[in-house]
Design a protein that fits this description.
The protein contains 20 helices and 9 strands. With about 400 residues, it is of the alpha/beta class. The protein has 2 domains: about 20-270, HUPs (Rossmann fold); about 295-380, Tyrosyl-Transfer RNA Synthetase (Orthogonal Bundle), CATH 1.10.240.10. The strands form 2 sheets. The protein has a 7-stranded mixed β-sheet with strand order 3-4-9-8-5-6-7. A two-stranded antiparallel sheet has the order 1-2. The radius of gyration is 21 Å and the shape is globular.
């Protein structure tokens, strides 16, 4: 049974919410416990196989390797799709840095696959208002960062005829605001404190923000896209730290006449120094940025990527690498598309026949190619292209 808002929160040894990801003693996040705490479900192989069958496309590397590992009502979305019913995608970005790091790219890379595989429309929310309140940024700086981040998002290859990108500062109003008020009336102060852990020291803007992130999951918030299709289902690809927003949304939705949004949720992309949480924009050495040069990528991986290899070559040959803690191998499991090659590395490195330096060198090559490819795509994104994605207009190719 899905947990209602606030249930079990504040009682666990690990803290996972939209602003804090930490485990007791700086250890690893226990995703099995998190699934139980949040009340979502694990994605099993039968769901992956079903997506493969319905889309006639090979499952994305993030899906087949369990990066996206949990869901809410994904089966219901697939049931509806199989009946010929349409749905739309919704994801977002809180623009607090000049450029994205690889962890930020993951939901967008996966969302692009979902958009292409299911041929569905997508809305992308830029929560510039949220970052203004949480990061002590000015309104103007938050808006500027939103447009800069939009360029990185567009560079992932989204289809402008199926995609609407909006910033909260520019778009909130009208039907969107009406839905915010409906949600706000259904959530008490005590409930929102229970869900998000707000304290008396938090500004009131933070307390009032959750409905802003909730209502893009209701099609009536976008009358220019979905006018009259108020029963359209929504699927939200996101990291699991965003789950509190949508537990609240799913609790409220039936009370105001809307479908509950479905979610497909990812684990965290670990920091270079070890898998104790997620890559952070506040520590540049914990992250690979899409603006990093080939030299910077090489230096960061060689200096900071935590190794599960042994202290000496002799010991490593004898015992092999601890793949559970080895960051270079974990990064390859995200970005090396070749399953056979990854399995070969798993066997050889785990047995000690492959050295840490060899694995790091392969990772440097993979990430350098990824970042350089992204940089070329971003350089081609003009202000006019950003304006086109953010224009309030019908999407001509929405469900084709």
């Amino acid at each position: 049974m899905e947990k209602r808002e606030g249930e079990g929160e504040g009682e666990e040894e690990q803290v996972v919410n939209p602003w804090t990801v930490s485990a007791k003693g700086g250890g690893k996040i226990d995703y099995d416990k998190l699934i139980d705490q949040f009340g979502c479900q694990r994605i099993d192989q039968s769901l992956v196989d079903r997506i493969h069958r319905l889309t006639s496309r090979a499952p994305h590397v993030f899906l087949r390797r369990g990066v996206f590992f949990a869901h809410r009502d994904l089966s219901e979305i697939l049931d509806a799709y199989e009946r010929g019913e349409k749905f739309y995608l919704y994801t977002g970005r809180g623009p607090s840095s000049e450029a994205l790091h690889l962890g930020h790219l993951i939901p967008f890379m996966f969302t692009k696959y979902l958009q292409e595989a299911f041929k569905v429309p997508l809305v992308i929310q830029l929560t510039d208002d949220e970052k203004c309140m949480w990061k002590n940024l000015t309104v103007e700086e938050s808006q500027r960062l939103a447009r800069e981040n939009a360029k990185d998002i567009i560079a992932c290859g989204f289809d402008v005829t199926r995609t609407f990108i909006f910033s909260d500062f520019d778009y909130v109003g009208g039907a969107f605001y009406k839905n915010m008020v409906k949600v706000g009336k259904c959530v008490t102060y005590n409930k929102v404190v229970g869900i998000f852990g707000f304290t008396g020291e938090d500004n009131i803007g933070k307390v009032s923000f959750p409905p802003v992130q909730a209502v893009p999951s209701f099609p009536s918030s976008f009358p220019h896209l979905f006018g009259g299709q108020d029963n359209l289902r929504c699927l939200i690809p996101c990291a699991i730290d965003q789950d509190p927003y949508f537990r609240m949304t799913r609790d409220v939705a039936p009370r105001i006449g809307y479908q509950k949004p479905a979610l497909i949720e990812s684990s965290f992309f670990p920091a270079m120094q070890g898998e104790t949480g997620k890559m952070s924009a506040s520590d540049p050495n914990s992250a690979i940025y899409v603006t990093d040069s080939a030299k910077e990528i090489k230096n960061k991986i060689n200096r900071y990527a935590f190794s599960g290899g042994q202290d000496s070559i002799e010991k490593h040959r004898e015992l092999g690498a601890n793949l559970e803690v080895d960051i270079p191998f974990k990064y390859l499991s995200f970005f090396l598309d070749d399953d056979a090659k990854l399995e070969e590395i798993r066997k050889e490195y785990g047995a000690g026949r492959m050295l840490t330096g060899e694995v790091k060198q392969l990772l440097i090559q993979v990430l350098t190619e990824l970042v350089e490819r992204h940089c070329r795509a971003r350089a081609a994104v003009t202000d006019e292209m950003v304006d086109a994605f953010m224009a309030v207009r019908p999407l001509p190719n929405m469900f084709n």
